[in-house]
């Protein structure tokens, strides 16, 4: 039967927009791959340290992040058994750090969602049974109510002709990969926080010992001054001055005690314990300050798990753009069913009551109010956000490394200058003490010399603590994961 020309023209006009949409969707290209990030061939601080080896202008190395990988036992480079025990305790699966447990739970959730996406691409098989009573719904039936019981199996399979399901499954898999990288990043963060908190506690112990030694020295001076006052050699003003120094220094010691308690409590929480369950003995600060190889900027992109997570986010967003574009194409689902149907439940499983059917369902929305276009725009916006986040993550990684490299270089210079200041202040105190006992200078001059020595020695300890903190921060900025046998500086 031929279709009249008067009907063919309206039909072509109605289908023209649909065909155009399919053609445009078929021609739309899904973005793929990572954005190019150019990494300098050498860190700025490395060029400052060795200008003769500086690269020429325009010499760059292109790098791509690697998958998430274990970070290694870098904390052992500090050579402190207590630190080793604390970090290993924090990394325990069952009762370790809570942030790591949360990140691991998110990984399990993402993996489960990936399996759910894969299930949409699988063969579906189900069983069912039912009973219904009806009247007047079938022209072949009488006006009397009738009963129909059924039992059987049903099967379905959606043909992924245009890649919508495969792209959605790929996006879910990349989401799980991103969560795995974030888990590695969380572990590295916890390791760094435990190390920095423990080293800060050891620095507080060293500073407390220094301040308490000065408290004892001031008390000895106070007793001497009190005896000299009783003998009539000095006035009460001298006693009051020394008493002031004793009380002020004791106040500083108590403030350091409070800080140490807070650091110990923080370590307990970081290692998954109640503060009452952890007690760290006050002992000498024997941790080694390792020399950390900075490597090349390209290696930072390969080692840092947060960069790998940003990479997975970009690839997942690209897959979702492809899935949104595939929504313009029809869905084709194959169905099949077989079983038994009978008006009498006793005859349900008789061979004469068998029934079966097969079918194919083709679905293509024509007018959807702009739903598919909005889906593509939303996925494209998420992709742009992921690309910007990836670039920001890479640039931030370079900045963190440069910050810590410059901090270590300047702190080393500051430590050398401060050591000279401490030596001079100690010598000044010795000379002032001798001159005071011989009556050449006043007590006020001696107290000024002691305050200066204490201030410089505390400043030297703070510089040393800052060096340890910057070293751990550099480890974290570089992504961790090298041999713990690094040479001590």
UniProtKB/TrEMBL annotation:
Topology versus the membrane: Lipid-anchor
Major place of residence: membrane
Leader sequence segment: 1-25
Swiss-Prot/TrEMBL keywords: Coiled coil, Lipoprotein, Membrane, Palmitate, Signal, Transmembrane, Transmembrane beta strand
Gene Ontology MF annotations: efflux transmembrane transporter activity
Annotated Polar residues bias: 132-149
Gene Ontology CC entries for this record: plasma membrane
PROSITE patterns: PROKAR_LIPOPROTEIN
Coiled-coil residue spans: 444-471
Keyword presence, Signal: yes
One Pfam family per UniProt: OEP
Annotated InterPro entries: MdtP/NodT-like (IPR010131), OMP_efflux (IPR003423)
Localization: Cell membrane
Region described as Disordered: spans on this chain: 48-71, 127-149
Family stated for the protein in its record: Belongs to the outer membrane factor (OMF) (TC 1.B.17) family.
Entry protein name: Efflux transporter outer membrane subunit
Organism for this UniProt entry: Xenophilus arseniciresistens
